[in-house]
User: What shape does this take?
Amino acid sequence: MREDADVARVVAALNAPGMRYRSFNNPPVRVRPVAPPAPEPEEPAHALPPETAPLAAFEFAAPEDLTQVEDVALNAAAFLAAMASAAPPEPAPEPAMEAAPPEPAPEPAPEPEARPLFTWPELVSPAAASTGLLDLPPVTAAPAAAAMPSTLSMIRPGVPEPAPPRPLPPMPASTLMPAWPMEAAMSATLPGADFRLLNAISRDHDPLPATQPPAAGTTLNMLRGMLDQMPAETPFPVFTAPPPQAPLMPTQGHILPAAAVTVPLSDVMRLLSVGANPPINPFDAVRSALAAQPFR
Amino acid sequence: MPLIMFASPKGGVGKTTMTANIADALRRNGRRVLVMDFDPQNTLRLHFGVPLTDTAGFLADLPKRPDWRNLVRQTASGVMLLPHGAIDIRGALGLSSALERDPELLAAPMRAMLADPGLLVIADTPPGPSHSLNLLAPLASMVVAVLLADATSAALVPEIENGRFLGAGTMAALFAGRLRVVLNGVDPNARLSRASAETVARHLGPRLLGAMCREEVVAEALAAQRLLLDVAPNSRAAEDLREIARGIEAALPAVPDSLQSGWGAR
Assistant: This one.
């Protein structure tokens, strides 16, 4: 949880009102000694030529000093006291040549459990968590996480949250069909599926009616319009030729013999086993169409 | 009554986003819609404003044979939602083996849902092969495959056409007849996107149900945990969405108004 603690610390620092610079409790890289206030220069800056006065008055400072803006006046004495009370920085690791034989590293002290920034509601019951099995009870009402803001509501606050789904009331018994015995299922006509084994075998291969003509302005209409404008072509051979039906043959025992036995051979394996001409690559159809496309 | 299934052989194509917004569009057309999440990512709920911490769902608890009616949420959009539920690797393996042993575990509640004549069930399935896909494909009135307008999706068209991504064998080819394709993320100003979309559109013809342009408001709507037609109803993406919904509506049987006032209606 080290990362969460760091994130929480940074978020708290950034949210501090009026504070524009924080060290986030990190030890400073370099602490400059605070010098006593310098005596007033004998020659005031305004005595210099106007164009050189700001440059001459500029004092090079460390980056941390540059971040000290004028409205945050740091008390030097308080700063040194705070640094003295802070934990000293970790010593630099010794060179490897002088290092003692490796010892088992002591267990780091457990960090205090930081409060998480966001928690998910826990749905797993303690009993299920102890057994390691996910045994979720059926959720019958909208869970507490329904209050989680949706993405759109965060970026567009005016958009109302969609109503969470609610469980349906029990279905009236009159509309339910009892579980069918297997004999009844085999003999009855399924009203919804319109499918029986014999019907399917004698069924027309294209029983669905043709689709309606597409509406103007849709993507499908645009596609068909482009096809109408193109010259008539013979269909690409890969879509008309039946798939190669070469007999399955052993692969001489050195090319995926297990696959040759247990799964249908792919076109590549068929080529290897039969030695036929390579099948037509379906990608050639796309490449051919792509070559005919104009650049826009 | 009908089951519309959204599937894809490839992940990350915007299938869940499309499912949620199509369900909302069909609800606005007067349908009573129940949308189900079969994807273990359990993210469909986020489109409907369900909090992240609300991890209850149907599929995740399926081995315990829960009553799905108790897990349905009435969302602010009016769409009824059946989330998948949070699941870990042990739960996923348990669910897979349970469906392998007893497919009725899922088939029975699905039949109960589809027995409601006024209810339109929309399913969001995980990408690639899955038990859910195998069990739902025979029940589906329409399978909507979502593809991105990129080269990979165009290269996957043969897989989609012969239905191999729905499974292997003859039945997959039969299911492929109910397959429609939606292109997502079409950018008319990008050459590759335009070329890929043209390739798919030229090949699929009327089986291309619609195309949705790439627009920032779609992602912004999810960021707000709201739906596109609610956030930006006048955007081009919203108009594309309405067109896809009209295409689905055209393939569905008309439902009398009396059936729109049943359970879950608003």
